[in-house]
Amino acid sequence: MKKIVLFVLVLLLAYPTILVSAQDEPFSIQVSPQSAETEKTDPVTYTVTVNAEPDFEDSIDIVLEVSVASISRSFTLGTVNPPYPQTFEHTLTIPEEIPKGVTISGKIVATGGGYIVDEPVSLKIKGSILDPIINMINQIINQIREIINNLF
Length: 152
Prior knowledge:
Layout: H1 2-22, E1 27-32, E2 35-38, E3 44-52, E4 60-68, E5 71-80, E6 86-92, E7 103-112, E8 115-125, H2 131-151
């Protein structure tokens, strides 16, 4: 009997936790574009819309987390305050150390009221990762041509 009482007590104590973890987040985000392709020199503008339940009155922090190869970065996009829905734009300039021809994977993360939601994003940088090497080889070839032309 003691085991049953103990089991029921543990179950009752865990029950509110189960209910809280089963609830949906009180807010959501939509991101546009979720997938894009751009030249390295062109900035990309993301539009983020935050929707929330009518009784949700907390601020929501928005961060873009990205990674490519061994480079990871976080970009703070801002804080959104009620009333909701709120829509804002953020223009991202591609960092110089990101090579051409790669796809950057990431997510936009929204945190507020103890909840975290995220939406995946990806960005393909046009070009080839070999472009700098090809340019260097072309420069060497041009220098060799110039030397040969000067010989004759």
